[in-house]
Design goal:
Number of strands: 0
Helix content: over 70%
Largest sheet: none
Distance between the termini: 73 Å
Order of helices and strands: HH
Structural class: mainly alpha
Number of domains: 1
Length: about 90
């Protein structure tokens, strides 16, 4: 089955989609672990869930860092005015 990848408009959209997918995988493994009767399989699935949770948290930190950097950059860029300063003394 071929996977359809949506058209993204920004890096933030890509990372948010990845976070959502990691959270979905976490829920999948957690629910599967609750349904299994085999201890080894349950522990394996819970390990997988923990990894997915860690991935989501790592991506969330990266997303916050990118947003923070963009806020700083927007502030810097907004301090430059396209219009010349009015003449103040002549």
């Amino acid at each position: 089955m071929k996977r359809v990848i949506p058209e993204y408009t920004s890096l933030e959209d890509i990372i948010q989609d990845a976070i959502d997918k990691e959270k979905d995988a976490f829920r999948f493994y957690t629910e599967a672990a609750a349904m299994t009767e085999t201890e080894d399989v349950r522990l394996f699935l819970l390990d997988m869930a923990a990894m997915e949770k860690e991935h989501a948290e790592m991506l969330a930190r990266k997303l916050e860092s990118i947003k923070s950097d963009m806020t700083v950059m927007d502030g810097i860029l907004s301090s430059f005015n396209d219009e010349p300063e009015p003449d103040k003394g002549a």
